[in-house]
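Hey,
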Amino acid sequence: MEEWDEIEVPNNVKDIFVEMKNTAELMVDLAYSSVLFQEKEIAEEVLELEEYLDLLNYHLMVKAVLAARSPKEAEQITAILQMGRAIDEISNAAADLAKMVLEEKLHPVVRDVILESEETIGKVQVSPESILVGKTLEELDLATNTGVWVSAIRRGKRWIFDPDEDTKIMPGDILIGRGTRTALDYLKEIARGILKVMKHE
């Protein structure tokens, strides 16, 4: 975990807890993506995020214990620690999926189950003619306008994991997104340049 030693961890229990939740959600999305598309680079990112989440969980435990000043507060802190452990277990499960991808031990049924889910993971390539090109994720607000949450972007040989709101979409980008099949199909039509406007614009 040495590479995380210089990472600035949130300095209160609430912020650490939120960061753990967000990290675990990203890990699950990326783990499913690595399974569907057999992308070992994504699987490796999941394992790196697991180390980061372990670090967050450690800091959560330390700060939670220091915050308890009475039996009542200690009882409340115990509930937070239980939630932290539950989030950690989710992250461990995502990491297990990633390890199976890296070790090429996945049974085809795992991929089939993910594809049959109501909400699934999709891969969308952006054409130069798309209205997405040159706009930031904040400007596009894809979650609201299309129902798709973008968890990663492949740009050439480089990956952008958990892109922030200032990330601009470029021609040729491959978006990894989570949503219903209908939402993903809709985003694909926009990305290909077939649709020139989004519903909520």
